[in-house]
């Protein structure tokens, strides 16, 4: 369970970086991604 959670956290972190890169022109969209 913990290992699966770590994998989810890592994939979420990379997904967030990609999301921030794609919406970096919109700070209102970027803020929730940073907080997540």
Task: Provide a descriptive summary of the structure in words.
This is Mobile element protein. With 36 residues, the chain is mainly α. It is built from two helices and no strands. Helix 1 runs antiparallel to helix 2 (27-35). The longest helix is centred in the middle third of the chain and has 22 residues, at 2-23. The protein is rod-shaped and about 30 Å long. The mean pLDDT is 65.
Give me the secondary-structure category.
Answer: mainly alpha
Q: What value does the Rg take, in angstroms?
A: 11 Å
Shape: rod-shaped
Q: Helix and strand succession?
A: HH
Largest sheet, described in full? Answer: none
Share of helix, binned: over 70%
- Strand count: 0
Average of pLDDT = 65
Low-confidence stretches: none
In short:
By secondary structure, this protein is mainly alpha-helical. The protein is 86% helix and 0% strand. The protein has 2 helices and no strands.
């Amino acid at each position: 369970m913990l290992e699966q959670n770590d994998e989810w956290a890592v994939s979420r972190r990379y997904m967030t970086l990609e999301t921030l890169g794609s919406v970096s022109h919109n700070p209102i969209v970027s803020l929730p991604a940073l907080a997540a």
